[in-house]
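Q: Trace token order:
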Amino acid sequence: MRANTQITVSVVMPQFNEETIICSFLQSLRSAFEDSGIWVTKFVCVDDKSTDKSVESLTSLASTGFPLEIKTNVDNLGHGPTTIRALLAGLESNSDFVIAIDGDGQFNPSEVAEACKFALFNDFDVLECQRINRVDPLFRQFISFLTRVLILVRTHQLITDANTPLRIYKRNYLINVIDQIPAMSLVPNLHMSCISRSRDYKIGLFKVDFLAKISGTESTMFGRGKRKYLPSSRFIKFCFQASLEWFALSPIIRKSH
């Protein structure tokens, strides 16, 4: 870390129907950061029009003095646009670093704090946390493979986890790249992976366990297929729309010299 300087951090997350886990996850994150000596100025949750009592639970937590800002989408926008809203909210905090993480509790808070220390110590522009020990059905494994291929084709660089939702951004980097991503992007993390490799940004990699989802089945983003090893119709539609975006709306990236 930079000597004699208090580095500030904001933690931002999109969330949808995570009533059973969101508050305990936030509290565990805060404790893990405090144990690591990291000062988190603000937690920001952007709720994507939840149909459960997530917002009520978050409001109750904030009323206790927990440093939490709650933003709620007027309409259900989906994970991608909600992630972008969360990142913009992180920039509003003026923190030195912004940590983006999903609100479904699938990361170990202690590992998140360790990743943050690693990012701060090395002063990375962006730290990508590679998910390991994932247990996904074959169709999701195949889609994950395709995302790596997309990044390889566009940047000529291999990447282990192209779509990881856990990333730690230096403020100046995030300011420079956020407007290169379509505001309603379905796959902002893929764009981030591409942009960070297109120029001379300092990228760090950190491995983290990906935990089993423990929140309710109602919070599953794309619903469930008729059989657990088959994708739902919503998931298929999402992949089709994301593909159109990637090839038609992806920002023009110019390599710096």
Summary: The helical segments are 22-35, 54-62, 79-92, 109-122, 138-155, 171-177, 188-196, 233-248. The chain is about 40% helix and 15% strand. The CA atoms of residues 10 and 41 lie 6 Å apart. The domain at 8-248 is CATH 3.90.550.10 (Spore Coat Polysaccharide Biosynthesis Protein SpsA; Chain A).
